[in-house]
Amino acid sequence: MLADLICVGNELLTGLIENSNSGFLSRRLWSAGIIVRESCVIADDRYAIGTALTAAMEESDLIILTGGLGPTDDDLTREAVADILGLSLALNQQWLDKLEHFFFEHGVIMPVNNRKQAFVIEGSILLENQRGTAPGLLVEKDSKLIVLLPGPPHELQMMFDETVLPILVRRNQGKLTKVKTLKCFGIGESILEEKIKEIKNWDLPAISYVARGFEVDLQIKGSGDPAAVNDSIERAENRLKAVLGSYIFGSDDDTLASLVAEMFINRKMTLALVESCSGGLLSDLITDIPGSSKFYRGGLIAYSREAKISLLNIKRELLEREGEVSETTARLMAEGARTLFNADVGIGITGIAGPESDSSQNPVGLVYIAISLSDGCDCRKLNLKGGRRTIKERSVQTTLNMLRIKLTSGQEELNGNSKAD
User: Is residue 17 within 8 Å of residue 77, measured between CB atoms?
Assistant: First the structure.
């Protein structure tokens, strides 16, 4: 099955809102064995939407439109789709009642223009929206399946996963196009490709490389008979793991943060942080994970020298002698985090994110990351390249990977990876 994605919205074209829906839907469709042929962004224009839909229906079996289902005059997706399909719009009394109840519960009278959201395309299936006022719609015409989804990601994602995806999986049974993603950290894309090319007698699925910062995704692709596809992808995965070892940290939707969180929870261990140059970014990633309160005790952003002195009791003389960006300071920050929050593991991150160096003339991108446990403290020195945000993100990525290795393989492997980058 081929699919086209049509994302509707002037705000997407002007860059006011990032188009995250396209990536989400592409990943979900691939997981169901559906190939995305094309993805485009269209203005809130009835003619433009209709033109894009007509072109997509000539090439693909499934067309998903996102956005343009709101109550205002520039929300025109359902009208444009109805025009192209030659179908009428009709009031859905059940959804209108739900809308009126929604506004009543919030203590306001429903605006007249919200009534527009209760009009659905003739013969379509209404898709429940548990997080908003715009229902989705699913309509079949001339063997083509057209799906209309609301634009806000938190509404779209729930509706697609709970309602649309099961329908698509049932329709696509017996045919499989599958992508398995292996996620790697700490090895460059070119070196990774060289290692894989050294594998002899590779008669397995093709591999694509997607570099993202310090991470590289390996996408293993297969299509055809489901049993054969699953078998070949599994064999490819096993051979890659045998060659790449701990460079592979997870697969598909795994992230370094989610895997580290799972490790802490499974081991019933606790974590605390003191961040400086990363500015709370690591704490933000960890607390984004449901259940992080089971292991995360808390963190500090000790950004200034005075904060390090007053909150962590680091001696002023030591900071002046060793420097705020130093191995000694990182170790004291990590030990201070563990002690202050009574945690099993403490993390300290200090560095220079730029764009200028500090008074000690240390280079931009110099970062020290320390991990403190009851039996000792390890520290890693990094020399990172890139802008301010890149340095912060890569510092946090490296910290999570250090934790992963520490919790997986222990002291020996962590020390083996502790050389300066």
Answer: no
pLDDT of 223 strictly over 60: yes
For residue 208, give the H/E element and its range: strand 207-212
Same domain, 317 and 364: yes
SS3 125: strand
Domain that holds residue 265: 256-416
Task: Give me the pLDDT at residue 174, please.
Answer: 59
CATH number at residue 274: 3.90.950.20
Confidence of residue 413 (pLDDT cuts 50, 70, 90): very low
Residue 333 burial (CB < 10 Å; 0-12/13-18/19+)?
buried
Q: Which residue has the tokens 């974590």?
A: 271
Res 361: pLDDT = 78
Give 149-183 pLDDT, tens digit per residue: 999 999 999 999 999 999 888 887 656 667 889 99
Identify the pLDDT of residue 44. Answer: 95
- Tokens for 161, please give them: 């996963």
pTM summary value: 0.71
pLDDT in tens, 340-359: 999 999 999 999 998 877 77
Residues 132 and 118 in one domain: yes
CA–CA separation, 196 vs 198, rounded Å?
A: 5
Residue 417 pLDDT > 60, yes or no? no
Beta carbons within 8 Å of 358's beta carbon, 6+ residues apart: 323, 324, 325, 352
Last residue of a domain, one of 201, 219, 251: 251
Nearest to 369 by CA among 400, 342, 338: 400
Report the number of distinct structural domains present in the chain. Answer: 3
Peptide bond before residue 111 is cis, with ω within 30 degrees of 0: no
Report in angstroms the alpha-carbon separations of 385 from 51, 279, 352.
Answer: 45, 18, 11
Range list of H helices, 305-417: 305-312, 316-322, 327-340, 388-409, 411-416
Does 261 share its domain with 318? Answer: yes
Say whether both 191 and 143 belong to one domain.
no
Is residue 407 scored above 70 in pLDDT? Answer: yes
Cβ atoms 221, 183 nearer than 8 A: no
State how far the Cα of 18 lies from the Cα of 108, in Å rounded to an integer. 31
